[in-house]
Amino acid sequence: MPDMAKDIQKKEAESPERGERTRTRRVYMPAVDIIERKNDIIVIADMPGVDEKSVDITIEKNVLTLNGAVDTAIPENRTMYGNEYGIGDYQRVFTLTDEVDKEKIQASVKNGTLKIILPKAEALKTRKITVKAEA
Amino acid sequence: MLWSDMERFGRILDPWREFERMSRAFSRGTSPSAIEFPAVNIWVSGDDALVTAEIPGVDPDSVDISVIGNSLTLRGSRQPEALREGEAYHRRERWQGEFAKTVDLPFAIDAGKVEASCSRGILQVKLPRAEADKPKKIAVKSA
User: Fold this and answer.
1) Are residues B121 and B76 in the same domain?
2) How many CA atoms lie within 13 A of A125 on its CB side?
3) Looking at chain B from residue 7 to 66, which residues have their Cβ under 8 Å from any Cβ of chain A?
4) Where exactly are the structural domains of chain A?
5) Which positions in chain B touch A75 (Cβ < 8 Å)?
6) pLDDT tens digits for B35-78?
7) ipTM > 0.85 for the complex
8) Who among A9, A31, A34 is closest to B90 (CB)?
9) With respect to CATH, is domain A11-15+28-122 assigned 3.30.470.20?
């Protein structure tokens, strides 16, 4: 089993190869858990500050992109006394293999956590190969 | 430690190794990655403090908030997904476990007037400053 995540510091996302961002706000890479089940693969991403309206998931060819826009307004008439996390948007890009049925992908957001279900393509669901004894 | 003790244990207790152990322990406590879950931001004004914490995936009703004097404590847990047979983690980056985080504020809090709300995985706690702790204006009378 992989090591438990101990570092909770947000990591800034790398700029995509296509170019720079037009907005100068920070972009973070959400921490994810990926679980493979019998018929699907689940991606769970921590994106605090994001709801169903501000999250955007796109698939282009085999590239799955998660984008989340966060309201970066800071409280008025207050000064910062402690700062452990930065506020900014989220982005993370995954390359999918052919085993995912792209037409049936589902996503939901609850309490700032995005959950994406990637169903496996019919033909590629775990097959059992029976081994015959040689005559 | 007395020198006679050093002589007795000198072969076992290497002072250089002890120094390295201490410096390791020190850097562990101060490195930026040592932030405990959840990460918090604190904003203050003359009348109150606003503490925000990122708790994605945590049921807001299960978070226990307590205030004593000038410190705020958040307690709760984030449980891993229950796996059935044949299911496996490919990546496991999200923090999991039970948390108890205490933050110290620059002034005493009126515990009876603390308000908390949670939306989109961000907990917001508003902590008014205790009346007795507020700075008092002293009028200067002319003689």
Assistant:
1) yes
2) 10
3) 32-33, 35-45, 49-50, 54-60
4) 11-15+28-122
5) 43, 50
6) 889 999 999 998 899 999 999 999 999 999 999 989 999 999 99
7) no
8) A34
9) no
